[in-house]
Specification:
4 copies of one chain form a homotetramer. Chain A is an alpha/beta fold and about 375 residues long. Chain A is about 35% helix and about 25% strand. In chain A, the strands form 3 sheets. Chain A has a 9-stranded mixed beta sheet. A 6-stranded parallel beta sheet of chain A has the order 3-2-1-4-5-6, sandwiched between helices. The first copy, chain A, has a two-stranded antiparallel ribbon with strand order 9-10. In chain A, helix 1 packs across helix 9, helix 4 packs parallel to helix 5 and helix 6 packs across helix 8.
Chain lengths: ~375, ~375, ~375, ~375
């Protein structure tokens, strides 16, 4: 049995989710390369050791660079805030380690470009890289893409996507690094807006070509956990209209102020032959309208995406036994390990991540210029 | 019992809907002024006579101007395409007849302004005017406005509205006057976009201040019912982002190409204390999230808006017995008759209609200028 | 144009609903026989005259027998409580008047049998009779039956039906005649249980052959509107399991104590090839699972039953414009008038009503014998 | 850190689910006693070794009795078909091992009684036992019980529960041990009917006192995987009405023939003050109607049960990040380990399992006697 040692950097929300995926991939997907949870890296010794013990990592490091030096580690999983991605990823790839990097790929287009360059250098040596847009691996989302690729929607005319959360709706919610432009790059835009951009592009196989955008910061100052207040230097909400390369219209909205919407990533796609709708709060469902159904019984079908014939679902439970949020990471890792074994290039690639970054940059550019049209670079 | 003679112009879709409302208002609302369905006007004698007979009008006229000359008629109900609204309404008001005019008020801002001027002149003489944004009178929509006005949503942060239809999704669907800019003014924008603008503004008590927009015509030519093809000179879809006068963000989309969506007017409003969601395909339901509910049981409530305490509902049936599309017209007429009896000014007024027209104009202006920002005149 | 004069007895809830249907049938269905709303009968002169005026009846009578004597009246519409049905219907039929009788047909099987005998005598003379199970004419329900008849569900295995209301959930809700066994025959069972029995049998084309039942009266005494309290001599809830003639299982439940359920008539049918689900609170929707859909995209379809190809829907509005509760009565009357013109026998017939009555009797019999099995007479 | 060695018997569907739970309980629940996945037992050496390797068990045994002899094992997890439960559980408890036993507790009341006796003997020595009705630990279900216990539903009047699957709807689906009365005890009744009985009783804190039932076997013979056909000696569907000890009515239905329903465990409870509804296909949602809400905004609330204040949810992800089917087993095991640490008695106990068995026995008894009433023993 081939194995690959994994070193993970960061053990907050994303680190916990990835750990569960590294633990779960063998029993459910029996990957051709088995991961060994070798080391967890973090800054504070006692904390990282406690986290490693609880999350199932065999050792702990207080300097991520140490992971690159270890021969038992062949893959680096980056779960830090966005401002650390570029440095770690480039160093890891240059050290010959496969890299899985959380999204968004970077905080700026320039960083993302450097990462893509490193990924290309590494690829030439058989070293793989992948960016963690995990929602591509929601079975319903993967199925949605399949239906579009098979032509069951015909020509795509409309994309509308929303990512609605409400955790900042209360002005008393405390300040975190996610509200700091230097750490997070942007607010709702990069955190959750990036997800709907990637997911919509993944489903449709199309890309956003140009946008007109606006952003808003409703609460400019928030209580700091250490006392006093801190300035919010990112957007609370970002919205834009746009056109895709192939001529569909698009509407996107990302917000942390949609009271009562907890994690509602909604995508609806209308084509000349059919339509799709998805809401992450109902993760196991895909709604599909087949325009070729007879008129008498046509209607949006609630597909419970838990059948053996559905993407990923057969690896888990019998039909109707639903999956949850973290399963998407297991799917992601299963595909990454398969690509490592096969020698193929896993997707979403760093280039995919860069393209999303360029859409984000166009959105910010348009928003800063009073919603004037901004073409997406390279599209 | 006071009565008012009604003369209606036009007997297509809207004329049929209004006729049912004129017939139904007495048994259910017992209005202080009873309408008498005096005359129906249309161009073709035998057709208008047949329609009058079937729809319950006591007489028929082939020239709408005749209605203005008749002493037994005190109210003109205009159900013609938009290009005829201004002439008929101004003449009727100047002749001292109350006017109910279908939406959109007119095809251009200039026409709408002339109509508002006529309405003001008429109002000074006690003559009433109203524009038919009937969805204000969906009980769920009226209730939504009430909740906003009572402060149960707090400060409004987000408005997102869609009006999705699919009757043009098929390129073989025939050309009609609704695809002709001269007759219809615009396409999806004025026909259904006007509805979501009015409804969203009605619910929130706020107005759109500026927009960035794009429009699209997917199918530029369609088969003409008389043979050959005809050019589509209006938009198939219109979408825009914007800001309201009080600082909320807004996203609007109107399309006739959303395959599988038949008449889906959806509005969602997020405020600092709560949220609302509505879909016209589920006309009797309002979804309300009360942010002051305890965290353990908070959730969007499906309010079935059929209780005696709900707007209009008590006039009809016991709780749970649902209403349909045309009930909104009965509510509209009941309110108009009450205003005539009370001497108050019915809403939506022609000025309200003009304001919607100005938003439509800003949308077209922005769309024609590559999505550049367009302020709404007067806001 | 052939016409038929209509005389209606009773003007409470059902009378108001029927009046709206008599008013609406001409504009929307253009029936071959036009009804003339000739007279309304009720006990109290000033009240019946006021009701006639408001509901659109040309005259008023204080004795229903007078309607039978009038030559201008050819059809009697019975909207009284169940204890009056048999006398009026038999007399009307014997007087050569067509009869539309509200459901349940009667309060006892014996009365119903007498009514069926009268209907058969009358039919021999071309006089028509119909019982008002109006939910057969919900377009979604009519479509459901059509799909079953076409074999799209295959062999029916399961029927589950509920009629859930909550208007008696509060023990302080006042006593009405509906709680008096002498007037109403039974409680939830005959009032709403009859509806689900008829609707389920109509959809499946099958009949209940035997049942095991229980009934319950949660609140045995209620405040009387005139002061004091009155005994509740009917069931608050009735539930039963059963088998149909063709071998399906059935579960039925009718209650006025389902807090929060206002008028939730739900039916679900599972067959070897497909399934159907319906909820009257979402009257315009039928859910259909087509077992022959490919496994990847199979799912319950939400059919919005408002297309021109759907039963009754084309007579009203364009697709997506929803219908309400009272439209079912217009459909019923349109079909009755068509049958009178055609000389065919309208359904549901009095015999259909008797069959439902026999199911109700079996339910009561089983409930009174500690849930022992009770075969339905004649099945 | 205290630990407990775990030995698991069986590695089919339930064994895979339990393994994932044993792996996941430490990172998410940090239990006071840490489980060590010591050994997996199965009949076939190479198969059980491969399963142990993949599922994360440190060793494999081909005789479950060996697990009882091992000092490093303190807890036996029984995931075999029902006919093996009693022997293993009694032996394990008598050997001083804690026992987690899958549901239904046994195939007969007699076996279940023997198991309860063993559990009581063991309890006296501090040895714990638990039966695996995992749906009690769906956060929405646990929350439902909490709301009932807090009185937010008032007096319970109605319980209606369905467990709808369709995997036998096709007569060509092959025969398995689940269709053999000797192995499985019963069909839909014991497999999924047991779940709705336990879940409904858990939520309401009430128990079924008597029933009237029927069962059906639609397809009496099925293709055997080894060729030929085999007889189905269990029910395909089971349904019953009943009364609870405290006076509520109950309707239950369990079937494997509900085409299109994959794993739809639905429970609805109506009380004098409120109602609850749940569907396992939408595992993260609880619908709650609070009858004390003001009439204008009352409605069923869709509670997304993913808040930190909700049962179990806080251990996983931020609000809105949904859980899946197998999380229920992790919750079960977390509670079992907590009980072992605390010295308290975990629930559902073997006595709880026996009580469910007695309801099942009453259902079978009634069904065999033509649906005559059957009191539940001990209630």
């Amino acid at each position: 049995m081939t194995t690959v040692g994994v070193g993970m950097v960061g053990y907050a929300f994303m680190g916990r989710a990835h750990s569960q995926a590294w633990r779960s991939v063998v029993p459910f997907f029996d990957p051709p390369v088995r991961p060994v949870m070798a080391a967890l890296a973090g800054r504070t010794g006692n904390e990282v050791r406690a986290a490693a013990d609880r999350l199932g990592w065999a050792s702990a490091e207080t300097d991520w660079k140490e992971l690159l030096r270890r021969d038992d580690i062949g893959l680096i999983d980056i779960c830090t805030p966005g401002d650390g991605h570029a440095e770690i990823a480039v160093a890891a790839l240059d050290a010959g380690k496969h890299v899985l990097c959380e999204k968004p790929l970077a905080n700026t287009v320039a960083e993302a470009e450097a990462m893509v360059a490193a990924a290309e250098r590494a690829a030439a040596r058989g070293v793989k890289s992948m960016v963690g847009f995990n929602y591509r691996r929601v079975p319903a989302v993967t199925l949605a893409r399949k239906l579009v690729l098979e032509g069951r929607l015909g020509t795509i005319r409309h994309i509308r996507a929303q990512y609605l959360q409400d955790w900042l709706s209360d002005p008393r919610s405390p300040w975190t690094w996610r509200m700091d432009r230097d750490r997070a790059g942007s607010g709702a835009l990069g955190d959750i807006g990036a997800h709907i951009i990637d997911t919509a592009q993944f489903i449709t196989g199309d890309t956003v070509a140009g946008v007109s955008a606006l952003t808003e910061t409703f609460v400019p100052e928030r209580p700091h956990p250490d006392g006093g207040t801190a300035r919010v230097t990112v957007d609370d909400a970002a919205l834009f209209i746009g056109r895709t390369r192939r001529g569909a219209t698009a509407v996107f909205e990302a917000t942390r102020f949609a009271t009562g919407r907890k994690n509602s990533l909604r995508i609806e796609v209308n084509g000349s032959r059919g339509s799709l709708a998805f809401d992450l709060e109902s993760l196991n469902e895909l709604w599909f309208h087949d325009g070729t159904d007879d008129g008498e019984t046509a209607g949006f079908r609630r597909i419970l995406v838990t059948e053996p014939s559905h993407p990923y679902a057969g690896a888990w439970w019998p039909p109707g036994h639903v999956l949850g949020y973290e399963h998407t990471f297991t799917h992601e890792i299963a595909d990454l390990l398969a690509a490592i074994a096969d020698g193929t290039d896993p997707r979403p690639s760093f280039a995919d991540g860069l393209q999303v970054q360029r859409v984000l940059a166009a959105v910010q550019d348009s928003a800063e210029r009073g919603s004037g049209w901004a073409a997406v670079e390279g599209s």
